[in-house]
Design goal:
The protein has 266 residues and is α/β, with parallel strands linked by helices. It is 47% helix and 11% strand. It contains 11 helices and 8 strands. The protein has helices spanning 3-12, 28-36, 46-52, 63-74, 93-106, 120-132, 154-171, 184-193, 209-215, 225-244, 257-262, and strands at 20-22, 42-43, 81-84, 110-114, 140-144, 175-177, 198-201, 219-221. The chain has an 8-stranded parallel β-sheet with strand order 1-8-7-6-5-4-3-2, with helices on both faces. The model has no long low-confidence stretch (mean pLDDT 97).
């Protein structure tokens, strides 16, 4: 599939009535496993990608390393890729444009850009700058609203999220991402407030996938959850081996060496 075809396919996956489930990955191997499991698209997790390369989350991962990782993922999957791009690795809109262009050139058809609960006009300016660039015309800009994830009071978080959603939609965003919103009434209010696809994050207390679809949600992200599950499983196996001399967890797997190796046969 061409880059234009992947971009078109990715937009189609946000159509009304469809819920796109994204199990966020951190490298080529996790991306290929997710694709083989039946994923419709690939999303990276900023946290998981940073940890996999020895950095803390929060744009500590060098941009060059991130771009290389996206290129490695694009080389082994055929489905669309969207990148959790934090604040865009810059404050100035023009610099964000250049950074987004780099991950797009590496194979991404979408990015998340977050506001970190700062002044909403900062992210709005970044979105407008990206949308003015003809070379980024096909890139899906998912505007992340961080008022819930940063612990705003419940009585004020929804109103603030609704206002930010309107501002980012007016700036030209293609989707809205509101992590850590879980209350069905708040989710429905967000869906009603905008024609843009609403993206939520898998966290404890979130309604089930069928319930989210019934509420009008069109995108669900696992965030760092898949990486935490995988690394937790690895840690449990290590503890059993190092402390108890037990091998059982090493072989409690769904994938064999041969099956995983065949995913990368060329």
């Amino acid at each position: 599939m061409t880059a234009a075809g992947r971009a078109e396919r990715f937009r189609a996956l946000h159509a009304e009535g469809h819920l796109l489930v994204l199990t966020n990955v951190w490298d080529a191997a996790s991306a290929r496993v997710v694709e083989a499991a039946g994923a419709e698209a690939i999303a990276t997790s900023s946290a998981a990608l940073a940890w996999a390369h020895g950095y803390a989350d929060g744009e500590h991962l060098p941009l060059d390393v991130l771009v290389t990782a996206v290129r490695e993922i694009a080389a082994v999957v055929s489905i669309p890729i969207t990148v959790d791009f934090e604040r865009g690795y810059a404050d100035e809109p023009s610099a964000v444009v250049e950074a987004v262009a780099r991950v797009a050139d590496a194979g991404a058809v979408g990015v998340n850009l977050e506001d970190r609960s700062g002044p909403p006009d900062v992210l709005a300016h970044k979105i407008r700058a990206c949308k003015r660039e003809a070379r980024l015309a096909d890139v899906f800009i998912n505007a992340r609203i961080d008022v819930f994830i940063h612990g705003a009071a419940p009585e004020s978080a929804l109103g603030e999220a609704l206002a930010r959603g309107r501002a980012y939609a007016d700036a030209g965003a293609d989707g809205l991402f509101v992590p850590k919103v879980t209350a069905p009434a708040a989710i429905e209010a967000l869906v009603r407030s905008t024609p843009l696809p609403l993206n939520v994050m898998a966290v404890p207390g979130l309604p089930s996938v069928p319930e989210l679809k019934a509420h009008g949600v069109r995108r669900l992200s696992a965030g760092p959850g898949l990486a935490l599950a995988a690394l937790s499983a690895a840690r449990r196996a290590c503890v059993d081996l190092l402390e108890h001399g037990s091998y059982e967890r090493l072989f409690d797997t769904d994938l064999s060496y041969r099956a995983l190796n065949e995913l990368f046969a060329r």
